[in-house]
Give the backbone structure.
Amino acid sequence: MLEPSDAQESYRTAFSAVKASPGKLTEATRVLAQAGINVLTLSLADTREYGILRLIVRDWTRAQKALENAGFVVNVTEVTAIEVEDRPGGLAAILEFLETARVNIEYMYAFTFRTGDKALLVFRFDNADAAIACLRARGVNVLDSVERFARAEA
């Protein structure tokens, strides 16, 4: 959940399989709240029986422990966050850069704070080092710290 790795400017994100039933998402967020963990980003995808809850938080080890202690299955992966202009074609340009570099996107999600300002994109790449090098070479702002990510809305 948001902590740079030693190898690259990426963040660890925990995702949990949440049984597709009323109250499970509430339970997961309640567990985090009781542990004093603020959620910076959340994405929920569904399968027939489970939801995949992806979270970025400041203290991912504490979040992982709290969720596991409450019976949730948690896997930790690395994601990369970037900042782009919120305008038509902003996402398309990023995807074209990555396509040219032959980087595969395993998943992504995006959000904005104010329309017309900046958008934040969170990616899971098959090769994060290559993706980061490609994006930086093209002047894309790769967020390299938890505090910059948390304050990106400012």
